């Protein structure tokens, strides 16, 4: 058999497990969402699956937590982070993963707060309103960044360790029936 089902199952399990961590108490914005999307983009070879896995995991956890106005903006940001993981992490290194985690935090900050400005009515629809929205969100950014870095280390480091301990999880490994 040429398809590595063990690898795919391990990758999807990691995505579902970290998505489930949204359901446990955590500091505001300290979530695995950005890291999960990066991981999916970097490791899931089929583009459709790379996007579907984290978005489905988000939808399942949002079904428990409750959907919120403008949730699709968050899903758009997740999709963009999957794309970032796919493009930036075609070659893996500690520096690339760290840089992509920081970039995913910035991307999420820009997209989600733009959505808040555009859709919530909390800020005037002007450049000064947009600036005020971004400025008000700065205190939350530190937790987003910390969460993305922590969970990226957990996912990418954990999977690298798993590949070392279980060679059948490595890309290109084959299984026998």
What general outline do the C-alpha atoms trace?
elongated
Number of beta strands:
0
Please work out how many helical segments DSSP would assign.
6
Task: Look at the helices and sheets and give the structural class.
Answer: mainly alpha
Helical residues, percent: over 70%
Assembly category: single chain
CATH fold name, please? Arp2/3 complex 21 kDa subunit ARPC3
> What is the C-level CATH assignment?
Mainly Alpha
Walk me through this protein's architecture:
This protein is 73% helix and 0% strand. The chain has 177 residues and is an all-alpha fold. The chain has a single domain, classed as Arp2/3 complex 21 kDa subunit ARPC3 (Orthogonal Bundle). Helix 2 packs across helix 4 (71-88) and helix 2 packs across helix 6 (127-165). The longest helix has 39 residues, at 127-165. The protein is elongated and about 55 Å long.
Summarize the SSE layout with pairings:
Layout: H1 5-20, H2 33-43, H3 47-65, H4 71-88, H5 94-119, H6 127-165
Q: What attributes characterize this protein structure?
A:
177 residues, mainly alpha, Arp2/3 complex 21 kDa subunit ARPC3, 6 helices, 73% helix, 0% strand, elongated
Summarize this structure briefly.
This protein is mainly alpha-helical.
